[in-house]
Prior knowledge:
With 293 residues, this protein is an alpha/beta fold. It is built from eleven helices and twelve strands. The longest helix is centred in the last third of the chain and has 16 residues, at 260-275.
Amino acid sequence: MTVSALDNGITGNRIDSQTVLYGVIGDPVRHSKSPIMMNRAFRETGINGAYMAFHITPGKLGQFVAGIRAMGIRGVNVTIPHKLDIMKYMDEIDAGAQAIGAVNTIVNDNGRLTGYNTDGIGYVRSLKEEAEPELAGKRILVIGAGGASRGIVYALAGEQPSGITIANRSVERAEELAQSFRSLADIRAIANDELQAACGEADIVINTTSVGMHPHTDATPIDTSWLKPSAVASDLIYNPLRTKFLLDAEQHGCRVHGGLGMFIYQGAYAFEYWTGQPAPAAAMRETVLQSLV
Ligand code: ATR
């Protein structure tokens, strides 16, 4: 790579002796869009930062955390499979991340590491900005009760919905999730055979399962004719950008909301925790979208 390529910001930002390092860890990690998104955010705001992807296998997690402190890495995003295991290395864990039981963002304040979870709040910010600004009083149906669902249910519970219903193939998992956050909102669990009735009552229906994800793009978690045409259909999947669930729901007259926004805004919150500045979300989205075509 030439010096001029760096100066032009083609592969990253201008790097000098003041540059602050950031990154994402995962196993695997080479597919991650976070580096292009975050380096665009640094360029856009003029912050002298550089963001890298680090392939960290589970056995190297402790060494990496020592490296965060030794190298003064200011911020780290944490992805699969480390979101739980990283927690024991934190000096402090934010209340939301504690409740969710997973950390996806680390802030390093002079060696003191704080863990946050921006997935759920990122999703909710995206839903409000892109599809439904007012969640208070809404009936929300969440399909799936895995790790992603957990963060989202926690964040939705803080928005004063009239109720949250969690449907899952194995109902015990939905019941367990509902139980965790029952003190925060009116939350109930149902099995998938009750989905049709629940869809008929819901203002917002969110797919948090992997059903419909590439390469199984013909699959869909529900029959969208069950939805109210006034409902919002939302999918966490962003590959494809429009799942069969969303395409069908759109045909049915529903407003639709794809999963890319969750990715953008989980990163936007991380950027804001690290830098104290508003994230340039539109530019971040533009860069990620360009990389997908
Ligand atoms: P994530 O962290 O992405 O949420 P996960 O914890 O493995 O991943 O959860 C996947 C969710 O998708 C679960 O709710 C799972 O249902 P079960 O708890 O019954 O396993 C759901 N899921 C995955 N494949 C599914 C399928 N083919 N049909 C219905 N639900 C499915």
